[in-house]
């Protein structure tokens, strides 16, 4: 059973989402204060759902920074009542995997959780892909270059695998959003540009070409 930590200071919403996630066969740990969530980091958690604005002085941004100090791989979903591209971009910069704007339906959140859990934790039969100096272990979700592990977020890893499995194929920004974030993602395609920029920075030997006015291609 997968464990989800849900950090939300609205008690009624927290209880409602907890009920829906438990019906979907997840174990759910809830927190209403950021400090309690930070103190829990290090325990077994398969996915975090973080409200950006909390009632104490610790925000969802503070929590994800603490999470990323321990692990680059555990997926994180941000929730917020503010529907601004800046919030989404900041969240992606900090390593979040998805962003959902309040008010949202419980079923939509569960669907997004299901999609991320399936994408991140399904086995790949020890398959490995090599490109330039990089070795990608799909089962362990580990990327190494020159015998040194490269820390990629979940989205960065999934984008890398998409490119490596389709070398020479051009992808539009909308196609990348669909393949990496999922069909239920609603947001600006600028998130794709930001994700590609971060992947290029971490893996500079990747020959990712920009197809102007369209998208990207790995050569």
How many structural domains can be distinguished in the coordinates?
2
Q: How many strand units? A: 12
Q: Which sequence of strands runs across the widest sheet?
A: 2-1-3-4-5
Report Rg. Answer: 17 Å
Give the quaternary arrangement of the chains: single chain
**Percentage of residues in strands:** 15-25%
Low-confidence stretches: none
Major beta sheet summary: 5 strands, parallel
CATH superfamily of the largest domain: Response regulator
CATH third-tier fold name of the largest domain: Rossmann fold
Terminal Cα span: 39 Å
Classification by helices and strands:
alpha/beta
Q: What order do the helices and strands follow? A: EHEHEHEHEHEEEEHEHHEE
For the record, the CATH architecture of the largest domain stands as 3-Layer(aba) Sandwich
In which range does the helix fraction lie? 40-55%
Any idea what the shape is? globular
Mean of pLDDT: 86
- CATH class descriptor of the largest domain: Alpha Beta
Please work out how many helical segments DSSP would assign.
8
Please tell me about this protein's structure.
This protein has 219 residues and is of the alpha/beta class. Helix content is 41%, strand content 23%. The protein is built from eight helices and twelve strands. The strands form three sheets. It has a five-stranded parallel β-sheet with strand order 2-1-3-4-5, sandwiched between helices. The longest helix is centred in the middle third of the chain and has 16 residues, at 106-121. 31% of the residues are buried.
């Amino acid at each position: 059973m997968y464990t989800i930590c849900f950090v939300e200071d609205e008690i009624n919403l927290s209880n409602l989402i907890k009920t829906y996630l438990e019906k979907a066969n997840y174990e759910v740990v809830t927190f209403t204060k950021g400090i309690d969530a930070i103190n829990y980091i290090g325990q077994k958690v398969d996915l975090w759902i973080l409200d950006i604005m909390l009632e104490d002085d610790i925000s969802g941004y503070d929590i994800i920074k603490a999470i990323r100090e321990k692990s680059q791989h555990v997926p994180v979903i941000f929730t917020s009542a503010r529907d601004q591209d800046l919030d989404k971009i900041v969240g992606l910069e900090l390593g979040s995997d998805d962003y959902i704007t309040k008010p949202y339906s419980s079923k939509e959140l569960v669907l997004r959780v299901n999609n991320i859990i399936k994408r991140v934790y399904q086995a790949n039969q020890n398959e490995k892909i090599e490109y330039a100096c990089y070795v990608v272990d799909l089962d362990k979700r580990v990327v190494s270059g020159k015998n040194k592990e490269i820390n990629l977020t979940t989205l960065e890893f999934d984008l890398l695998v998409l490119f490596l499995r389709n070398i020479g194929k051009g992808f539009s920004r909308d196609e990348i959003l669909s393949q990496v974030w999922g069909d239920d993602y609603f947001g600006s395609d600028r998130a794709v540009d930001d994700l590609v920029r971060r992947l290029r920075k971490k893996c500079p030997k990747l020959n990712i070409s920009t197809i102007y006015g369209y998208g990207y291609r790995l050569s």
